[in-house]
DNA sequence: GACTCCGTTTAGGCATACCTAAAACAAAAA
DNA sequence: TTTTTGTTTTAGGTATGCCTAAACGGAGTC
């Protein structure tokens, strides 16, 4: 069930771009898998109570799913920041997404704090509602 | 084939503790899997030319395997350092081992340089020949 | 109202990586 | 030399996560 995190994060991001339900085809694009794979995984997520699924219409995060996804997104943002600003690597958002679900809670937590404590309060929602094919967290310290 | 890295790293460490061939049972312990699982994976590694396998005796890294394993070990050491000295987390060597094989070459490389450049030349071999149930890279800046 | 199109879901398969239980083996004890 | 003991390997099976091709459904067109 390691991959569930990847789909949860994709759905979280998609829901910030357009309103749910999010069709499985869009999730498939975001995780770079076949539509069939996305459908299957969304069904598993529904079984786990993390997603509401309306056949032929799409998926919506449940409260539980939203909670997990928000955590994952925080980790993802921290990793993206780390790759870009610490390791000086661009275009590693994809790897950040893949890795977000693989870190232990401790490591994820410390990484997020490393970012927050060292950079003021970063606006984690930054760019969530922005344009672009991928969620590129710029980590500006405030937005509105 | 993501898990191959885990076994390769275990074998690398084991070979520094006692002389090869390393019996599959010992690898099984190091990766926390059943002996049967270790045997199977070692057979796959042999097929891939990364390991020499003598039935009922054990495995030895080939030159190719050694090369890959040494890289993995470098990444592992860097991750361990990062978890301990940057994130201030102890007892995360296990996670470092699991993660070492999951990082892209770029990220692994930058992470290693982050460690090397910021800490003098760390002795990557430190503790490889030391006692203890796990390989705990202390990252002292020199040894002999 | 029937048809066409396009996206979604189901069906059938496959690779990886694991497990338990049974068989095979090697080395030491009797 | 035979037996016992402990380890390794094989056999058979399972879960996850993916794929392609076929079937299905819905929305707009004729």
Question: What are the salient characteristics of this protein?
Answer:
6 helices; Arc Repressor Mutant, subunit A; DtxR_MntR_Metal-Reg (chains A, B); elongated; homodimer; Metal-dependent transcriptional regulator (chains A, B); two-stranded antiparallel ribbon; DNA-binding; mainly alpha; 144 residues; 56% helix
Total helical elements of chain A: 6
**Strand share of the residues of chain A?**
5-15%
Alpha carbon gyration radius of chain A:
15 Å
Kindly report the name of the CATH homologous superfamily of the domain at 4-65 in chain A. Answer: Winged helix-like DNA-binding domain superfamily/Winged helix DNA-binding domain
Tell me, rounded to a whole number, the average pLDDT of chain A.
87
N-to-C order of helices and strands of chain A: HHHEEHHH
Low-confidence segments of chain A, given as residue ranges, are 129-136, 138-144
The major β-sheet of chain A equals:
2 strands, antiparallel
Q: What multimeric state do the chains show?
A: homodimer
At CATH level 3, the topology of the domain at 4-65 in chain A is: Arc Repressor Mutant, subunit A
Please give the order of strands in the largest beta sheet of chain A: 1-2
SS elements, strand count of chain A: 2
What shape does the CA trace of chain A take? elongated
Structural class call of chain A reads mainly alpha
Helix content of chain A: 55-70%
Shape-level CATH architecture of the domain at 4-65 in chain A: Orthogonal Bundle
**CATH first level of the domain at 4-65 in chain A:** Mainly Alpha
């Amino acid at each position: 069930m390691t991959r569930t995190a990847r789909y949860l994060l994709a759905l979280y991001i998609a829901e910030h771009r357009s309103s749910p339900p999010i069709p499985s085809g869009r999730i498939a694009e975001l995780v770079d898998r076949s539509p069939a794979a996305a459908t299957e995984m969304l069904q598993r997520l529904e079984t786990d109570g993390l997603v509401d699924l309306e056949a032929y219409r799409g998926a919506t995060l449940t409260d539980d799913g939203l909670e997990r996804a928000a955590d994952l997104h925080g980790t993802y943002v921290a990793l993206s920041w780390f790759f870009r600003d610490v390791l000086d690597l661009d275009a590693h958002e994809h790897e950040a997404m893949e890795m977000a679900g693989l870190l232990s809670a401790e490591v994820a937590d410390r990484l997020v704090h490393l970012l927050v404590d060292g950079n003021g309060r970063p606006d984690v929602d930054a760019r969530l509602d922005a344009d672009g094919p991928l969620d590129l967290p710029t980590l500006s310290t405030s937005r509105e």
